[in-house]
Design goal:
The chain is an alpha/beta fold. The chain has helices at 15-20, 45-53, 66-76, 95-105, 120-135, 140-150, 164-168, 174-182, 205-220, 236-249, 262-268, and strands spanning 3-8, 23-26, 29-32, 35-38, 60-62, 82-87, 110-115, 155-159, 186-192, 195-202, 226-232, 253-259, 273-279.
Length: 280
């Protein structure tokens, strides 16, 4: 049985890795007024943050249409027997439900949908693992079982550099954002029950990073093989430095760098840093 792997653009898997793993990507969109851009296709992360700096209003985001999924699945049905469609958390987007609905509408191919309950490259880890198994000829049910198993050790934490976007998006009151900015409060966020919630609030970015490194150390200290990703919102040099530090400290981790693109970056704002990992 030949199985195709699909994910959406919010996995932010670098293009060369998507291509080498034969991962098919369906885009979400970001909207500046009447202008709509499909992320990863019509606008890059860097272009997005440059454009957002000059906007007074926060851009909006939109999920792919069911029709886009149907079209992709029908194309894949000509070459594949099954599809595993892997998406960002259903608690923050209807993308997963759209894929599931589309899967019920197509014939000649079996569609399995998977809710990662996270986003960004941590979501991408599921797609990479699925792709590696598909290329090895594993059955779709075996791949789905492995994805569920991965959830047990999957962790993701996000440090927001500026509270403005969270406040504009209604996730933080104006007074709290003002006080937080004055006190330099840096919230550490994580996914819980499929939505993004505060994990801890610390006073400085350095303390926030150290706290997340402590959490990573708890999982890494037993020397089991791990995959780790540093994710940045237009801070590539900072992310690369963190990657090098982690690789020097731990021999058991495979570390990479990814980014927050337009859709997720809309809510987190420029300068956000995320770290995610799981045990292989």
């Amino acid at each position: 049985m030949k199985t195709a792997i699909v994910t959406d653009s919010t996995a932010y898997i670098p293009q060369h890795i998507r291509e080498s793993h034969d991962i098919h990507m369906i885009p979400l969109s970001v909207n500046f007024g009447n202008e709509t851009y499909q992320e990863e296709i019509e606008i890059t992360s860097q272009q997005f943050f440059e454009k957002m700096r000059n906007q007074q209003e926060l851009p909006t985001t939109s999920q792919p249409s069911i029709g886009m999924f149907v079209e992709l699945f029908e194309i894949l049905s000509k070459e594949y027997d099954a599809v595993i469609s892997i998406h960002l958390s259903s608690g923050i987007s209807g993308t997963y439900n759209g894929a599931a609905t589309a899967g019920d509408m197509v014939e000649n191919i079996e569609v399995y949908t998977f809710d990662t309950e996270v986003s960004a490259m941590v979501q991408g880890f599921y797609a990479l693992e699925a792709a590696e198994m598909a290329q090895a000829g594993k059955a779709p049910t075996d791949i789905m079982a492995r994805l569920e198993e991965m959830k047990k050790t999957m962790s993701a934490y996000i440090m927001v550099d500026d509270l403005t976007n969270l406040q504009k998006g209604g996730r933080l009151s104006g007074a709290a954002a003002l006080i937080g900015s004055l006190l330099q409060v840096k919230p550490i966020l994580h996914f819980e029950n499929k939505v993004i919630v505060p994990y801890e609030k610390v006073r400085t970015k350095k303390k926030a990073l150290n706290r997340v490194f402590d959490l990573l150390h708890e999982d890494a200290k037993d020397n089991e093989p791990m995959r780790v990703v540093v994710i940045h919102a237009n801070r590539p040099e900072e992310a690369e430095k963190m990657k090098e530090e982690l690789q020097e400290k731990y021999e058991n981790i495979e570390c990479m760098v990814s980014y927050f693109g337009p859709v997720v970056g809309t809510h987190l704002g420029e300068g956000a840093i995320g770290i995610g990992w799981y045990k292989k």
